[in-house]
């Protein structure tokens, strides 16, 4: 399972990043413009909030598990979640949790 999680983390980095880089190429490195594009209509705003809430829930879970299990390496999934996306952060954390010595039960 852990290699599947790693593959999903890589895919979850590359696939969305390709779209972000395309957008930056067409519009310049305007983060506020990108946020505005995310809220272009009600459907995309709903998706943004869905992912934001999922990212916060994942962060709370990671933080709680890191404190409980003392698996400090898992903390790298938090910036991965907010800088890349839930599509990277969640499988990355599951990969780290499932690794030998990760004290995971997966």
UniProtKB/TrEMBL annotation:
Pfam families: DUF2834. Keywords: Membrane, Transmembrane, Transmembrane helix. It comes from the Bacteria. InterPro entries: DUF2834. The chain crosses the membrane at residues 42-64, 71-96. This is K+-transporting ATPase, A chain.
